[in-house]
């Protein structure tokens, strides 16, 4: 019990001594031991690293999960060491809505079929996004967080110890100065002076040792930068993979949907063409698909060309399929984008349809899904 009381008294005395020294320094009534320039440099560099690591982490989290409420929820689950509930991301939600609406409109219709294919692609992009988030969390965010919650907290702890050792040293210097003044007045070597000099030697030694420990830790920030550089490279590679996957998914979707023939234009195509006329000449052609729930009506200019001639003849011609078509009945022929089939006109058939033939398979096909070949 006596030992605890004495220890408490000693700790209280040390704390009071540091508080007095700190206050006198602030008031300009006491000298302050300055850290060497190299150590001050290292401390500033560590603070700068901490500041920007926090900022990069925060902005990366916002990029990967824009919804702040979801970020807060995920943070709470992480602190509680529980697994966050699995939820569909925005791409997956959009994809599911497209698929459901496409099935409602009918997979055999142009619009319904296109919605389903777009929905499947959106869900693929959603899956790729999940992989990006998971990879980024493991290879990029986690090392940054480990630095802030591990290495930098250790640096803060040792820096605080260094500050306390400096205050102890300066307090000892102050006491020694006072003891020397008192000794000079008494014209004799007092025990108080000896005690003050011994205390100064001890505090100076402890300060020097703590300064070395702190310096070694701070110099380790260079290794942290090297590690974070590797993590940054991993993050860039994960993004490269993600964007490449998204691009490939959309290219594949374009191939499935196809595009209107050059003679079949719409208001959207015309406006986009006029907008791109003033550019440097580099433009991206976005294919269109029929937007009605039923078959699109043929354009007069198109009907008056090759299709009109074909209907007035008894022959047949090759035609390229522009985009997939699922037969709505046994009398129709299903089509795959980019395949080539033979088409002919049958007397009495609706003008929007032709008879298609693929090997031994025959059936009606819509002309708006076809492009006649020479």
How would you characterize the overall build of this protein?
By secondary structure, the protein is an alpha+beta fold. 66% of the residues lie in helices and 7% in strands. It contains 9 helices and 5 strands; from the N terminus they run H-H-H-H-H-H-H-H-H-E-E-E-E-E. Strands 4-3-2-1-5 form a 5-stranded antiparallel beta sheet, covered by helices on one side. It is rod-shaped.
Number of helical elements:
9
Q: Reading side by side through the largest sheet, how are the strands ordered?
A: 4-3-2-1-5
Measured as a percent range, the helix fraction is 55-70%
Average the pLDDT over all residues and give the rounded result. 80
Q: Any low-confidence stretches, pLDDT <50, length ≥5?
A: 259-304
Number of strands: 5
Strand content: 5-15%
Major beta sheet, specifics?
5 strands, antiparallel
- Rg over alpha carbons: 39 Å
- The shape is rod-shaped
Secondary-structure element series: HHHHHHHHHEEEEE
Quote the distance from N terminus to C terminus. 106 Å
What structural class do the secondary elements suggest? alpha+beta
């Amino acid at each position: 019990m006596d030992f605890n009381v004495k220890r408490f008294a000693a700790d209280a005395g040390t704390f009071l001594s540091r508080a007095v020294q700190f206050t006198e320094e602030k008031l300009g009534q006491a000298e302050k031991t300055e850290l060497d320039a190299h150590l001050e440099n290292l401390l500033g560099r560590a603070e700068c690293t901490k500041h920007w690591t926090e900022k990069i982490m925060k902005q990366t989290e916002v990029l990967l999960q824009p919804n702040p409420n979801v970020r807060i929820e995920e943070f709470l689950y992480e602190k509680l060491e529980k697994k966050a509930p699995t939820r569909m991301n925005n791409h997956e939600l959009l994809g599911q809505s497209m698929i459901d609406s496409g099935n409602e409109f009918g997979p055999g219709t142009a619009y319904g079929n296109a919605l389903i294919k777009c929905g499947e692609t959106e869900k693929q992009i959603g899956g790729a996004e999940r992989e990006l988030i998971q990879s980024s969390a493991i290879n990029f965010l986690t090392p940054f967080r480990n630095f802030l919650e591990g290495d930098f907290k250790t640096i803060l702890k040792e820096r605080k110890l260094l500050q306390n050792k400096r205050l102890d040293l300066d307090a000892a210097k102050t006491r020694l100065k006072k003891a020397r003044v008192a000794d000079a007045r008494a014209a004799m070597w007092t025990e108080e002076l000896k005690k003050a000099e011994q205390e100064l030697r001890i505090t100076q030694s402890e300060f020097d040792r703590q300064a070395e420990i702190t310096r070694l830790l701070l110099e380790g920030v260079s290794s942290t930068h090297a590690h974070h550089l590797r993590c940054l490279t991993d993050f860039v590679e994960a993004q490269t993979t993600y964007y490449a996957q998204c691009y490939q998914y959309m290219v594949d979707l374009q191939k499935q949907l196809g595009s209107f023939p050059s003679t079949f234009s719409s208001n959207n195509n015309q406006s986009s063409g006029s907008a791109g006329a003033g550019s440097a000449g580099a433009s991206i052609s976005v294919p269109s698909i029929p937007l009605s729930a039923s078959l699109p009506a043929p354009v007069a200019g198109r009907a008056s060309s090759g299709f009109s001639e074909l209907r007035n003849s008894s022959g047949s011609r090759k035609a390229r399929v522009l985009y997939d078509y699922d037969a709505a009945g046994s009398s129709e022929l299903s089509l795959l984008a980019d395949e080539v089939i033979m088409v002919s006109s049958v007397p009495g058939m609706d003008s929007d349809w032709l008879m298609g033939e693929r090997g031994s398979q025959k059936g009606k096909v819509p002309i708006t899904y076809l492009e006649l070949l020479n």
